[in-house]
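Margin note: ligand = NDP.
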Amino acid sequence: MFGLIGHPTSLEHAYDVAKELGYPEYINQGLDFWCSAPPIVMDELTVTSVTGQQIQGKYVESCFLPEMLANRRVKAATRKVLNAMAYAQKHGINITALGGFSSIIFENFSLQRLGRIRNIKLEFERFTTGNTHTAYIISRQVEQAAPKLGIDLSKATVAVCGATGDIGSAVCRWLSERTPVAKLLLVARDRERLQNLQADLGRGKVMTLNEALPEADIVVWVASMPKGVQIDTTTLKKPCLLIDGGYPKNLDAKVQHSGVHVLAGGIVEHSLDIDWRMMKIVNMDVPARQLFACFAESMLLEFEKWYTNFSWGRNQITVEKMEKIGEVSIKHGFRPLLAFAKA
Ligand code: NDP
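Resulting structure:
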């Protein structure tokens, strides 16, 4: 059995989730309520591969909200992630993906050192961040969506916002080693980490977001921001491809400018319907087929019986591992989402 640990993107979104899934006691509750709410299994699902193989899974709602970080409720945030992991393990789930901010909290607050939750010793090999598959899918979205807009990668400038992150650094490695991308712009806040990445890659220009945006033909957004940013689309090149892999989204409002094309990043489409309710409430266009690549990673590990923390730690993702997960992704019928958002 596989598991998915997820969370709403905001307090407002949490109300919608509770309403949609039939949890009236969770509706209109404030942040304090969510800080003390325990994890629950909100959905159970069966996934069928194009090979015919079937697997069962559970969606565990951790009840974490990004507002907890914005309001310095760090203890509550870390408790949410650890309790959800202990809960998944107690339910006998073999491999569980830490979706959205779950893995970021796990790493940023070094939760690895807290191995025991009450009477449960966490077995970390039962969990994966799902970031290898996410980085693979975003890289393939760059490769496959660019030609659709007439962008030739061998002449293109690609800016990666969140370049020093787990997903961002992996995307940079893939673009450097596996594609002819002409120029790579590295964007994040910590300059020292950016310079270390530049040295590792042996290429890339360190820039601020405002410097990078007007130069980029393609922008990959993989920054861990609790709230999205507003950008001035008039300063962007036309055409420009924006691949937003953030959860919550890195871009605040709908981008409405002809020549600027937005693609939901790190999203896969499955070849067969999945009978679940989760993807409807995160506003996927085709909820029965579209899902986060990190969730799909735990499905792939279950299909292949690779019961191991395939993606773990920070900035350890290799191009070889991306290729390996990419092969089984194709084998089981997943493909990168290539439908641009409607303006
Ligand atoms: P990490 O914490 O490893 O990296 C985050 C990166 O963002 C760092 O480079 C950080 O550098 C940068 N960053 C943070 N804030 C800002 C800012 N205000 N401006 C510019 N850069 C910033 O995160 P992950 O790589 O694990 O995840 C990245 C994003 O992808 C998150 O939004 C996450 O929720 C999402 N995600 C999506 C998945 C999917 O399936 N689609 C799966 C998993 C994650 P610095 O601090 O120096 O600025």
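The chain has a mean pLDDT of 94.
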